[in-house]
Predict the structure.
Amino acid sequence: VGIAEGDSIVGATLALRQSSSSSSSSAHSNETSPLQTVEERIDLATECLGYDATISALASLPPPSSPSEELLLTVKRIRRQPGVDVTLRYPPSSNEPDATLRLFAGENLRRAMLTRGIKLNDPLARRFDSGGRGDC
């Protein structure tokens, strides 16, 4: 998956990998060491930069000098938080219109209703709690 609209480049790494083999000889035998990979990295942080500053930062990287160079981009993808619409229907005797609330994943239903000004307790009903505001 490529970069999509709304994605943010938060970092870039230019990696240059060079493979080399070195031989070591001892008095008793000729041994060749395994292939070694030498990596040079240039890290660049671009998180929270605007478009022009991000492009300037990416352009500041040195131009490629060999096919073994690799540019790695770290991307953050903004995702919409899933939500659900909840319709509250009051009894006909209360003469209240139905109310629709938009709740997000993980949101506490009671707390969401209270913060949106929905009265959950009838002030005239018998109470079995402390008799406070009804937000406990």
